Amino acid sequence: MYFPWNDYEEIASNRKNTLQVFITTRCNLKCNGCFAKNVMGEKAKDISLKEYSLVIDDFLEKDGKQINILGGEPLLHPKIREIVQINRDKNIKTTIYTNGSYLNRFNEKDFENAKLRLSLYCKSGKNKSLDSMIKTDFPIDVCFMVSSKTTKKELVETADELEKNYNTNVFFISSIRELDNPRKEFFDDTELSMNVLAYKELVHEFLQEYKGNMEIHISKRGVFESTKTIAGNKCKFANYFIGGKIIQCPYDTINLKFQKDYLFDTRNCQQNNSCLMSKIVVKRKS
Predict the structure, then answer these.
(1) Cys staple from 217: which of 104, 160, 172, 257, with CB 3.0 to 4.6 Å?
(2) What was the pLDDT predicted at 224?
């Protein structure tokens, strides 16, 4: 496998103390790869502004830097504008993870100072496909969650179309599942699970074929190493669910591994020296 370093340069990225807040259990999709479905439950619930504000105050006291807003589908929360405003008032770096189905209900000002990251599973299909995505002038990052069904051609064509027809400057490649893990610590294998070396090879082939100029973010998943950023073995993630449920590592959600509280940069990573959530960032050399 050949990583085309002659064509790309790595951009240093810092690991930030990040809290993922699941603000609603509402969702219009039923995705097989949803890593939080065990926690979501069947009953529709939305976090209150009071609870959210308390969560944010606690997060800042813990030296939090980044908030990821998730669901369910976060754009279905009736107070999503107010939630974004709370973060804006406190100057918190914010990313909203969405399937993009409801972007036509909003304008760009609603998400001022926040980043929208759309999740795709495929170029064409029923769930989270590029072909069914609402056209928008909003600046958006796109995360393509590859699976055992993803091909190099599909990945390249999706990136090309996003760069040409959407306001997309960041293409994030990650995986729909945890990839293959013989210990099955987190997820059971499904037909969507991708062999970890196949994932690495797919990314290498994509970078050789792709000729555009978007930033390419690559989830390390234990098989990619940074030449710019020292790997950390202390957890900089935490996850908060409605009603005060806390899970530190995102990979523990499938096992419902709840805890009473969280601290950043304290817990040793269960992968020993490389967080599976970390990434590398590359851009084509000018």
Answers:
(1) 172
(2) 82
Nearest 5 degrees, angle CA 6-CA 159-CA 217? 60
What's the CA gap between 220 and 226, in Å, rounded?
9
- pTM of the full structure: 0.91
CA dihedral 22, 27, 32, 36 (to 10 degrees): 10
SS3 256: coil
The type of residue at 129 is: S
pLDDT digits 0-9 by tens, 167-194 = 999 999 998 766 555 555 555 556 777 8
CB of 62 closer than 8 Å to CB of 110: no
Which residues are paired to 245 by β-bridges?
A: 241
pLDDT tens digits, one per residue of 183-227: 555 555 567 778 888 899 999 999 999 999 999 999 988 778 888
236 backbone φψ class: left, alpha, beta (φ>0; ψ -120 to 50): alpha
How far is Cα 273 from Cα 234, in angstroms, rounded to an integer?
A: 8
229 phi and psi angles, rounded to 5 deg: -120, 130
Q: Which of 145, 146, 142 is closest to 166 using CA atoms?
A: 142
Order the strands of the 237-241 sheet from edge to edge.
Answer: 8-11, 279-284, 215-219, 168-175, 140-146, 114-120, 93-98, 66-70, 18-22, 237-241, 245-247
Q: What is the pLDDT of residues 109-122, one digit of tens each?
A: 999 999 999 999 99
Q: Which amino acid, one-letter code, is at 180?
A: D
